UniProtKB/TrEMBL annotation:
This is FAD/NAD(P)-binding domain-containing protein. It comes from the Eukaryota. Residues 84-104 are annotated as: Disordered. SUPFAM superfamilies: FAD/NAD(P)-binding domain (SSF51905).
Amino acid sequence: MAILGPVSLWRSLLPGSRKKKIAEFTALNDLAGLGRPRNGNLIDGTALIAGGSISGLLTARVCSSHFSRVLVVEPESWASTADGRSHAARFPKGENQKRSNPRTRIPQYIAPHNYQVFTYLALKEMFPEFEAQSLKIDLNTIVPCNLQFHPSGKHVRSPVDFYNGTLPKFLAITRHGYETLLRNLLKLTCPNVEFVVGTVTGLNVGRHPDRDSTQHIIESVTIRSQEGLKITEPAAVVVDCTGSSTAAIKWLSVLPDPVIVPKQVHDPKMRYTNCEYIVDPAIMEKVDFPGGYANASMIYLFHPDYRMEHRTLLIWKREHNALQFVCGGWDLTDRPRSIADLRNFMRRIKSAEPLPNYLFQIMDALEDNECDRSATYNDIRASPSHFVKYHEIVERLPTNLIAIGDSVIKLNPVKGQGCTKAMIGAVTLAAVLHECDQIPHAKYAQRILPPSFGKIFWSRQNKRTKSIWEQFKHEDYGWNTTIPAEGEDLSQGAFMRWYTRNLFSVASKNDDVAAVVYNCAMFLAPGSDVLAPGIVLRVVWAGVKVVFSVYHEQPYLLNHFYRSILASLGDVPIQDEVEAY
């Protein structure tokens, strides 16, 4: 869930309709345009996309509706083979069924992934065959999104009543399965999308032909092929989807008139181990899971209170009976290598409410049936988080250069926002392209995007994704092992942490507030919804009650009351607060 950052927060409190907030802070209004063909002729040129992972594939689908040709430049040759489109390639052949990672540039390729409801809604609009192709992989790839969210162990129920008994659907699939699915859908529905193995190494720019524009435009790019040959490819638009490589920063820095792009970086030192077991559902018949293990998709999502714990635990089921665990944390040293290790990890977790007994029943069932024999344990050391601030230097950027996904904002991966953030960028691009009329380009005797294209896109995407960055950066600052961004310190974001913590506490007791939290977390509502007056009053009262209950029971702390309020906006000794709950 992304609560609005400080500036957006105050703007959200100003008079204005909720419809305006939905349009400004979400991409919900743009979903209907995803499947709509372009009004008029396609742009006669190539949309060149650097990077063929999730953001690149989504961008290719969007561009296929607007450009006569789409070229995806992907450095990993494996992605262009038959295995790159085969879901069965996820399971190695032979005696050793443990998975390896065929995507050497994407460490998280075999890591567990979760996707918000917004992604499902967008895929339905993008691809008419989406649901049919998904269900071919497994009948449980599209299911109701029952989150099983437990901040500090307190269950925030999914809003079944709010949705009249049927929760919104979501895509419950592995990261490998998602990428394979997208490649197959592109092949089925987008004949103008081509793939080439190589790397974009540079931009060739010229002055934009619009007489009122002082900016440059990319006329072509240089590509280094798999064989090491340099190729020049004309481009009507260039999209950086290279993820953590943030290749556009390098391209811009070597132009004749170099452009230096501001970039904010912090390091939460996130470490985690992915544990996967292929489980026969029959062995879980005795597990007392709410609603039954066989009907579950999400098993347990534990988010720690930074004042008492640095471990996080995520458990869910995916296609073909895969049971996946993420044992992670801020500056974590644990590295589970067995079911026994995983059980010990769970037992050491500190929370306001204990982990439910059914989790340990699952561990017993795994151990009794020797599931360790086919288990996969994969350690990941996440790279630092970053925010590339292209929106601050729009006037210096080529008008037809944009970036989507991790190329702009890379978050702490345990938050599970990366793929949805990429989708928000792709949906935003689709709407901007629908709005942009072509203008003549005398040099090439064709029509091109107007000089306003980049400005509109950068402004709109930033409004919709900046709050995600602010929310999770400041959440990372709750752990004293985090290395903050330059010029900042870990005290920043204290109010946001306090508000979020008490919001979750209220949501665990109030189904109406829980519904708002759910909708914001699924990107079905703007983050400003959690700042509605009724919710703010409940959250503030919850925080005040905790503070006063602690100081009433321990009068000797009264001398520190105001200092505590001012310094940490309500943080009190954690054991006292847990007891007060």
